[in-house]
Specification:
Layout: E1 6-9, E2 23-28, H1 37-47, E3 58-61, E4 69-74, H2 86-102, E5 107-111, H3 122-134, H4 138-144, E6 153-156, H5 162-180, H6 188-198, E7 205-209, H7 212-218, H8 220-225, E8 238-245, E9 252-264, H9 284-299, E10 304-315, E11 327-329, E12 335-337, H10 345-360, E13 366-372, H11 376-382, E14 386-390, H12 392-396, H13 399-410, E15 414-417, H14 421-425, E16 436-437, H15 453-461, E17 476-481, E18 487-488, E19 495-496, H16 501-509
Parallel strand pairs: 1-6, 2-4, 2-5, 5-6, 9-10, 9-13, 12-16, 13-17, 14-15
Antiparallel strand pairs: 3-4, 7-8, 8-10, 11-12, 14-17, 18-19
Helix pairs in contact: 2-3, 3-5, 5-9, 9-16, 10-15, 13-16
The protein binds zinc ion.
Length: about 500
């Protein structure tokens, strides 16, 4: 997609006609607090004839200002303790839509700096919200053309950094494209190809595992999920490996497993009664991680190494399909009984995590993550919020807490769930024939602890369980369930959000 082009603007004169912009967008909780007299006078004067000014987004005729347009989008309710920085994002999206509808091509965005710390990233959050508002579906762009809505968006401030925001948005565009696109255009093979093209000429190391024998040997659980897809060449599974390594000394290493189930029929435990619609979005975890790597490749942060494995597979159904009751040995050598073929995401992740575990053994200060649209339970539990479930090492290092704090600042809020001993009792194979059971045979949304206990499965099936607090090589592992946060609006076909890309990037570079 045509890149959204943010520009840092340091000179207040940019608000005037003839200085490169054609609309002034003001996002503020208090017009008087802006400190720009021309805008304050115009807005207060406008209030005399239009009581909406300061209450809802309004366009004012503003001779002398850029494009003669002043759009004021108020941020109300900032003193409410329950509110967060997303208030600014919402107001910015409304202002941007007014500018778009009014025919502006180069808007200048001004966001007031609120005194409360929780709004510290208000300008960056507002800018990213504009990116979210502007994104259009890949299928639509490919059919109807891909012209940028705006030539550029100026950011009048000192607190933001356009280069960082442009890189974040480039990653988010890639993530949304990968997550949101229909299952034939973005099959596993096409997803892998889309990544390879997006990373061309970057500093990233990229490889794609395509060979069936290699997939079945190295990713046995993932290959079981894809077993009935091998017969259709364009539906065959892929594993994409991507690595970013900063020049110079490395002080922290990060490892990401991304769930990329490009279509989830449920497999032999097929989704019924309309439950399959929207299941092309079951690749949001791999998509967000892919986007994160793009952002990293553009900003090249120092001191970090980031390794990602994306498991791309179609959970198809057919005579070759894997079925419930089968016992399959994971890459880590753990014999897994399949409890339900619709709990396929954890199978994909377990093999990816096992490979990352081996790489992490020799890495400096490693942190591992799995990112996935994993469960209906997390949606039932937390609505549209991301949930993280940590192992003991991550909890000791306050990884979840840090992610939560960063998420609050950047408008990507996160809930921290605690892994409990009960979660391990849910993955016992009652027959004793297998080492563990992948899941119960009911939808997670009606299962108690339905989004927490998969983390227990992931720890065991990937071999990460052997890297707890008392182990010789402890490894911090955090499972991130984005089933509720990967898209916004319509539950089936809403816009992908690219969450938790911004929070993970901020965590890595903090
Ligand atoms: Zn499923």
């Amino acid at each position: 997609m045509a890149q959204v082009n943010f520009i840092d603007v340091k000179d207040n004169d940019a608000i005037f006609e003839g200085n490169g912009y054609d609309a002034v967008l003001v996002v503020t909780s208090d017009i008087d607090a802006l400190g720009i007299d021309e805008i304050r006078l115009l807005a207060n004067h406008g209030k005399n004839i239009d009581a909406r000014i300061g209450r809802s987004p309004t366009l004012l005729f503003a001779p002398g200002l850029a494009g003669g347009r002043l759009i004021v989008s108020p941020v109300n309710d900032t003193d409410n303790d329950c509110q967060d920085v997303r208030l600014y994002g919402d107001a910015a999206r409304q202002a941007l839509q007014v500018a778009l509808d009014a025919g502006a091509k180069r808007p200048l965005l001004i966001v007031n700096q609120h005194q409360s710390d929780k709004y510290r990233q208000a300008l960056s959050v507002s800018a990213l919200a504009c990116g979210q508002q502007l994104w259009q579906a890949l299928e639509r762009r490919e059919a109807l053309g891909d012209e940028a809505a705006f030539e550029a968006i100026g950011l009048l401030a000192t607190s933001a950094n356009a280069a960082v925001l442009n890189a974040m948005e480039a990653g988010r565009i890639l993530a949304r494209d990968l997550c949101g696109t229909e299952p034939e255009r973005m099959s596993a093979t096409a997803f892998a190809q889309y990544c390879v093209e997006a990373y061309q000429d970057s500093c990233l190391k990229v490889s794609v595992v395509e060979d069936r024998d290699v997939l079945e040997r190295d990713y046995p659980l993932l290959s079981a999920v894809g077993r009935s897809s091998f017969g259709v060449p364009r539906h065959q599974p892929r594993v994409v490996k991507v690595e970013y390594c900063a020049e110079g000394e490395i002080s922290h290493s990060y490892f990401f497993a991304g769930k990329g189930v490009v279509y989830d029929t449920g497999g032999a435990d097929i989704k019924i009664a309309g439950g399959m619609a929207g299941m092309s979005r079951d690749k949001g975890g791999a998509a967000a991680v892919a986007g994160l790597m793009k952002t990293l490749s553009m900003l090249k942060p120092k001191g970090v190494r980031v390794v990602a494995e994306l498991g791309l597979v179609r959970n198809s159904i057919g005579s070759e399909a894997f079925v419930t009751d089968e016992i399959i040995t994971s890459h880590a050598g753990v014999r897994v009984r399949i409890g339900n073929t619709d709990a396929e995401g954890r199978l994909v992740l377990a093999d990816l995590l096992s490979h990352l575990r081996i790489k992490a053994e020799k890495a400096v200060s490693p942190q591992l993550f799995s990112v996935a649209t994993l469960t209906g339970h997390v949606v039932r539990c937390y609505g549209s919020y991301t949930a993280v479930v940590e192992n003991s090492v991550a909890r000791e290092n306050q990884v979840g807490l840090r992610l939560q704090t960063i998420g609050d600042e950047w408008g990507e809020p996160i809930e921290v769930s605690r892994l409990r001993r009960d979660d391990y009792s849910k993955i016992v194979d009652p027959s004793g024939a297998a080492d563990i059971l992948s899941s119960n045979n009911a939808p997670s949304s009606v299962t108690a602890r339905g989004h927490q206990y998969p983390a227990a499965f992931l720890l065991k099936a990937s071999g990460l369980e052997a890297h707890g607090l008392t182990a010789a090589t402890p490894m911090a592992y955090t499972h991130v369930d984005i089933a509720g946060s990967a898209t916004e609006g319509d539950p089936l076909y809403g816009k992908p959000t690219a969450a938790p890309l911004v929070g993970l990037f901020a965590h890595i570079t903090a």
